[in-house]
Amino acid sequence: MNVIHRQVVWGMLVAFVVFILVTSSFLIAFPLNGWKELWDRDLMDVPFILFVPSVSLAAGLIFGFSSGVYWRKRFHSIDRILHEVEEGRSIDSLEINSIGDMKTILNRINKIQNQMQEQVKLSQRLANQKAEDQENRIQEIISQERNRLARELHDSVSQQLFGASMLMSAINETRSSADERETKQLKLVESMIHQSQLEMRALLLHLRPVALKGKSLQEGMEELLIELSQKVTMKIDWKVEEFCLDKGIEDHLFRILQESVSNTLRHSKASNLEVLLIQRDDFIILRVVDDGIGFDVEGSRAGSYGMQNMYERAVEIGGAFKIVSVKGKGTRLEVKVPIMKKEGVGND
Questions:
Q1: pLDDT computed for residue 322 by the predictor
Q2: Considering only CA atoms, which of 253, 199, 250 is closest in space to residue 228?
Q3: What pLDDT, on a 0 to 100 scale, did the predictor assign at position 30?
Q4: What single string gives the DSSP state of each residue in 221-259?
Q5: How many Å apart are CA 141 and CA 64, to the nearest integer?
Q6: H and E: helices and strands count for the chain
Q7: C-beta of residue 67 within 8 angstroms of C-beta of residue 11
Q8: Do residues 306 and 264 lie in contact, with contact meaning Cβ atoms separated by under 8 Å?
Q9: Is the pLDDT of residue 347 over 50?
Q10: What is the pLDDT of residue 188?
Q11: 3-state class of 279 per DSSP?
Q12: Are 167 and 285 spatial neighbours (Cβ–Cβ below 8 Å)?
């Protein structure tokens, strides 16, 4: 039952009470000699027994409907304002003052929104400080270890795969194609070796770019994607806009991109990858889209360390993490981070 129906019901109850009171008062003031007089006595040329209930019913309906419409408008206004708060938008002070009877509630909502914005500012400030402190203490250790692993993989497994690929290519080119079944098997082995090379290149690429290392987020993203496009057959398109961000936010967004691209290379079997970094209104949007095989988001989220890691990084900088995947259609990942004005910066 919506608010209009509920108010109409209350209006009908009020009309019934009014009808009882009016009828009782009339009968007390003007006692009847018989019930037939209710039909004989007229009010505005209408029998009393029809006039009073009709007027009461009409008054109840009008009162209930008008009050229902009034409260529905008020509730819709509050719902719209709460939606704006949920989206991280500021409430217009003029709008608060224009709804007098809701002013107290809206003022409380405004206070809650201010508290949420302060929490976002604090989270981003702490993330920024944490990123700077940890980068100075552990970046060199992690970099050395990952470079060591990448170097060993490149010098051993990667070289062996390259040699096996060259050997299989030479065998397939020099041998006769008399045995069609054996030829297909050798081609399959060559294809598997080639795929292993691609996965190894993606793994080495994931191991090496540990952090931005003095670069901006945009520079780091473009360097990562250019190198990746040179090493794999996947078509990669990107759009990266230029704008300034705090070090902590840049670091978290870059690592989310790393994790997302790594998951795409290893699991998606995609042929196209699109990366977007833009600023719209008061938000930074990072979006990664592929046309791979997709997966069950709800089923994978609980046991996926990578997805949990990306979600925690997004929350740590006050952002929203959303991922949509349809089996056979691909996956779309989006991180939306609000831009908070720095203290001491205001409108002139």
A1: 93
A2: 199
A3: 61
A4: HHHHHHHHHHHSSSEEEEEE------HHHHHHHHHHHHH
A5: 72
A6: 11, 7
A7: yes
A8: no
A9: no
A10: 84
A11: strand
A12: no
